[in-house]
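U., I forgot to send this yesterday:
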Amino acid sequence: MADITVSKKMAAMAVDALEDRKGEDVKVIDISEISTLADYFIIAGGSNVNQVQAMADNVQEILGKAGYMTKNVEGYESGKWILLDFGDIIVHVFDNENRLFYDLERIWRDGKHVDKSELDN
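Result:
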């Protein structure tokens, strides 16, 4: 993974982008110590397909303008669970039903939950 400060900056930008589109219950999990997949998982909920897609679009736009491009996007068309893989961070945007069903917070409970304020340091 890249320098953790770069990952932290990317995660902070993603959280801001999600919150800008009214993302619900945005969570950041530091998985750098338990996985080689990424440094951070960011998980957010939306109330409908349009909102979920708008949140994903905003994350891609904000991070893209900063020079961070998605390596992979999954699930955009259905809008039920969109995965945005930026390499150092992975953003999961769910509709409410699928967020409860997949419960990534439980699956990745060994990761460290990070408060947004910690990302700005």
